């Protein structure tokens, strides 16, 4: 019986930065893209609404700081999930099919799925519970809008793309 644990490097994850830093940077980049996109439709969403969800007054770039912290945290969760054994096997598996997606494209697609999951879990499920408990609510918060949906997909795509480019994935056979 093999008692050795597999690690990301066993699957060819190596390189520039480790998975924690790479996923954190990807999460921050994704939250910047998401914030810029949603800001086109709701200009005060990041600077005013996000602090108000915590019962805080908006001041300076505090809302953006919270938004980037959310992205960092969610990015590290993504990195943790995709560097575990079941996900690693799937993401680097060579499949015999007509279309050949490399690990970088697979990580970007995994990021999109993760963005969709975050959209369902946080603004659609957790946010209503949070606001009912705290009483901090903003009627203008775009939880279940097309813009929020697309923004979360952009977050995930950016996260997966940045992560896959900061982590070099060598083809191991």
Automatic annotation (TrEMBL):
<feature type="transmembrane region" description="Helical">
    <location>
        <begin position="149"/>
        <end position="167"/>
    </location>
</feature>
<keyword id="KW-1133">Transmembrane helix</keyword>
<feature type="transmembrane region" description="Helical">
    <location>
        <begin position="20"/>
        <end position="42"/>
    </location>
</feature>
<protein>
    <recommendedName>
        <fullName>Histidine kinase</fullName>
    </recommendedName>
</protein>
<feature type="transmembrane region" description="Helical">
    <location>
        <begin position="107"/>
        <end position="129"/>
    </location>
</feature>
<feature type="transmembrane region" description="Helical">
    <location>
        <begin position="62"/>
        <end position="82"/>
    </location>
</feature>
<keyword id="KW-0614">Plasmid</keyword>
<keyword id="KW-0472">Membrane</keyword>
<keyword id="KW-0812">Transmembrane</keyword>
